[in-house]
Amino acid sequence: MVQQQPVHAAPTSEAELVLRIRDLHTYFYTVVGVAKALNGVNLDIPYGKVLGIVGESGCGKSVTALSAMRLVLPPGRIVKGEILLNRIRREGDTYTVLDEVNITDLDPRGHEIRSIRGREIAMIFQEPMTSLNPSYTVGNQIVEAILLHQDVSKEEARDRAINILRRVELPNAEAVVDRYPHELSGGMRQRAMIAMALSCTPSLLIADEPTTALDVTTEAEILDLMRELQAQMGMTIVFITHNLGVVAQMCDQVAVMYLGRVVESAPVDDIFYDPQHPYTQALLRSIPRIGSRTKKRLEPIRGVVPDPYADIRGCPFHDRCSACMPGICDVRVPAMSVLPGKVGHEVRCFLHSDAYEGDDGHVA
Amino acid sequence: MTEETITPVRAAVAAAEPTSDVGELSQWQLIWLRFRRNKLAMGGMVILAIMYLVVIFAGFLSPNAHDTQNLDYIYGPPDPITFVGPDGKLGLRPYTFATTTVLNQATFKWDFEIDRNTRIPIQFFVRGDTYKILWWQNDLHLMGIAPPDRLYVWGADSLGRDMFARTLVGGQVSMTVGLVGIALTIFLGSVLGTMSGFYGGAIDDAMQRVIEVIQSFPTIPLWAALAAALPNVSENFTMLHRYFLITVILSLVNWTGLARQLRAKVMSYRQADFTSAALVAGASNARIIFVHMLPNAASHIIVVAALAIPGMILGETSLSFLGLGIQPPMVSWGALLRDSQQVSTVVQHPWLILPGIGVVITVLGFSVLGDGLRDAVDPYSI
Amino acid sequence: MSPEQPQDGLLLEVADLKTHFPIRKGLFRKVVGHVRAVDGVSFTLRKGDTLGLVGESGCGKTTTGRTIVRLLDPTAGTMRFNDPTAGWVDLGSMTRKELAPIRQNIQMIFQDPFSSLNPRLTVKSIVAEPLIVNHVARGEELNDIVAGLLKVVGMRPEYMSRYPHAFSGGQRQRLGIARALALNPKLIICDEPVSALDVSIQAQVLNLLEDLQSDFDLTYLFIAHDLSVVEHITNRMAVMYVGKLVELAATEELYYSPLHPYTEALMAAVPIADPRIRERPIRLPGEVANPANPPSGCYFHPRCRYAKDVCAKEEPILRELAPGHWVSCHLAEQLTLRGVVSGSGQS
Amino acid sequence: MLNYIIRRAGYALVTLLFVAIVGFLIIELPPGSYLDFRLRELRTLGGDYSVDMIKALEQRYGVNDPVHVKFWKWFSNFVQGDFGWSFQYERDVGELLSARIGYTLMFTLTSLVVSWVISITVGVYSATHRYTLPDYAITLFQFIGLSVPGFLLALVLMIFAQRTLGMEVGGLFSSRFRDAAWSWAKFVDLLGHLWIPIIVIGASGTAWLSRVMRGNLLDVLNMQYVQTARSKGLPERKVIWKHAVRNALHPLVMVFGMSFPAIISGETVISIVLNLPTAGPLFINALLQQDMYLAVTFLMFLAVLLVVGNLVADIVLAWLDPRIQFE
Q1: Can you spell out the DSSP letters for A204-269?
Q2: What is the ipTM of this complex?
């Protein structure tokens, strides 16, 4: 089913996007009720860039990633939306555009999604302590991934595993390959996870809070490594985090999520120097900034993140928003709109546009 | 609340606090809410409640007293019951048929033949054998037939005693052995387990070795060996003594499991920050154990206890079945089943294993109840 | 051996504090070694100060805090506390009974807002526990005090009969703070009080802590690993590495002109929330030393890029290099280390 | 590893010593044991012969010795393989038991293997098909399996086999083969008699074990590394069997020590109903007759088996789970 279309020039604008997520809704049907984790997420993931997804716990950033991998487990389900993967293969300077797949159409256990997982899209998880299987050596787990997607012998796969471990700057890769995860420190395990994710040169790497569980010096080293690998390999990374410092250090483009929606999407510089959504602004004001030299009182966002079972009418942020316009914000959900005069800066807020998508929080 | 004493930031938070009533519910109420959703466990609880009522009112519910012998009805089969009257019409009144005994020429044994033509009406609230419910003596029975005939709904045993009455009365022993045993288990297990987990050190080491040794014996053989050491029923050693010692034996092994689990719990509570907070507040050890640890462990204790009752009931049944537990004239389900130890006997008189139904239903009831409790107590289960 | 001489205005003086945990092995649980969780820590705390204690996981900062409130017993050293009624006392050598009246002045706020509140008790019983235990109040009076405490931390008194499960992490942390305030203490050990909270809630709790400090004249020992939080809330800071203090200074001085190479690496590692400042971190080779088997000399020397022979041989002592700036490094005078890069960001 | 095994074995030996003390106490407990009975009998007989016998018996069992000497006599004899005398059968206990213990082991071990194989398969199936009809059905069977006492199940199956299938059950062989020489036909007959005991002995263990397996696997399926395995693109079958089941087995090995005594316990009772020539009926009979040396020897044998079983489980676990430190 793969159409080979050799294109020698740079890919067309559509093909510049590795992944397009359109109106994605993922719900969890639990005994307590329906948790609407994603309420229409739109994301464009450009080729060769680092896209940051930032938001507080429960905003749906991890569910977005799991949906793209089709790893949302019951009682969770994708109820609506499209996830379009552009299968691009790059060899040297030539791009080969393969077909475009809608991931939401695939059987979550089927052959096709499995050929995407690991090979096209790879993922790193938050907890380095539990994301590697304690019963198998690091090498075993990397070799397993290599043998799954590449036609090589076992010896060859092992050599590749050692090479990739060296690539992630693990000292003594020949020995580490035969170690069990519990014999490695947190930082080393996360390096091994990165190695495993990179072992099949995926076109997209999703990193879900990869450094949250690590100490600050280890975190800095892992971030540095990822930046370096990204520059060398031209990899596309989706970097999920709640830490604005990490976003500033890692990302090119940033999507801010709140309660299952992207509320602002902009180049990283705009997010920090010209944020437009009240939530983004409030978030930036509420964090203590190191290096600002002047001590100012923090400005917390009032209220708490509503739980995902709550049915909120209108803009999901309106009851915590200082700029809330009664009669407008609490009635309709604002639509994502492009800010005039800006490149790639979109906001979902009635302060900027009157466009709306529905009368309340429900799917139309 | 007085808004003016609170800074805007603090007031903002207060405004978003939960308003539902769920917050007023204690952990026990939440457990009960979760438990109530579990239909299987609720069913188990209802069935157990019915079973306990039935065995308590055994004397009233059964047509005959459990120890009335009837030499004319040795190994008599269950009386069939019909709602078809003598007029051939289906009615509300139940009838049974007359039984006659015929000497089998081949085996020289008395065979029972049912005379399908002679209907005997079953009467309700009839006077019959006297029985006791606790201290209350009476002779009123729910149902029966006119004397001298007797109604045997579940047949009769080797002495012509009513199996139905015997099963219900046997339940009084079998269904309480577990409860008395579990009370002892909870007492021993909680005290020893809490001490072991709280004080650690040498006490803990000693306790662990004792538990290890006890757990090094397979349960039933150990129970059997201990029960064999009990003296036989005599004037100085009544049936009641024996009954209580059997429960002691059953809990002697069972407390080890609870103690181990409780020890682990208490040790984890020792690490918990709420214990640290109490220590920092200056709370005494007693307060930490009784206010902080035991209430938290209580739900766990109940679950372990509920899950251990089936084992005790099965234990008593097995011991009595082997002749090492409850002994005649006292009856229990296991003691009744002892009559069916010879397969050849049961094949001919299969109603002798009917007391087994009581065992299965009770144990099943406690199992689903315990399982449901565990799910209700564990907040992480969905 | 204290870095500063005891003087007026001091509340706590910790000198050469050691907390070791025995490692037992074998059939007879023989002690075969010790984890030196805290291995000679000295600092002083002035009234009204907020002293930050930072370091990476396993460095002994939490153990230090827990030893000061005597949740753990010290192996050696002194912890002198200036009690308003009893005067100077050594917390480390007191029995549990002697400690009881002193304890009322030293309270603690815990990291995990879930495990620090007993789920079986109501809000009232939780907040009132210190009052009940110390026989401060009962009945109607107790009720009033608890209601007042709840108001102080920004919670409705009507929620007194609720159970902790009804509250979010931030609200639970407020309850923990209310409990710590109940006995009107002088010193509060804050053990990572905001690290389990969401970013927007962190700010609420941090502001609350600041307000309470000025309202009730509190002194904080603030233990945390998030350096931006610590910079915000403290005025003095201590950095720990493998059970030892490596540097102690006024917060700003420590951030912008560190004197210890480990502090330098720590500062360089903080991801700064400004995309226009992207610096490469300082790589620390190898792993954090094992506190059961630390290296010779300076514990940091195997990972230190400036290390010389002397660092492997001699253990550096904590010395005052500039007024109020203490450091434990042989080479401190010779090194010019970089601190946090000053950023502007938005606002 | 060797160090670890030696240390564990050391623990086991200490436990066994205490087990022996308990065993000895059980011998001493009953007020009217066979030994007392025999001595009394001999005394009433009188005469030189019986006086010699009494002396010999008193000497051998240390009747008049202080408790610790008595214990030591029994214990040292026991360790040397002299388990005492069965007064009921007038034979040496060792001799009596050795004739039957083989069958006990055959039944329990076969049931153990069968129940483990079934439990793991069923447990994996019901965990991966949670909240489906088959899972509910399996759960129902598990509960019933746990609720029916083994001897009752044996009775029901025998009534069923005899009444409905017209089979002759109970014992190991049909009457016509009982004294016959070994032949193919006798072997087939044996197999025909084996299925009921194996089903019955294994039933409750299987029900329990498969439930434990289901729970373990459900826990493991929530672990992050299972998602990691899926995210690599592994087929679900491999995710389950390679990544999840392997880790779910660790706690199962720990309960091995518990499943074994459960099975032996059941076997002891069941073999009476099924009239099996195992040690179980001998044991119960000995208890009923207070033939304590025979009874306690069997009990001790079971305890040794159990302690050794736990030791093996510990070692297997250490070998299976790389996280276990050998210190």
Answers
A1: EEEEESTTTTS-HHHHHHHHHHHHHHHHHHT-EEEEEES-HHHHHHH-SEEEEEETTEEEEEEEHH
A2: 0.82
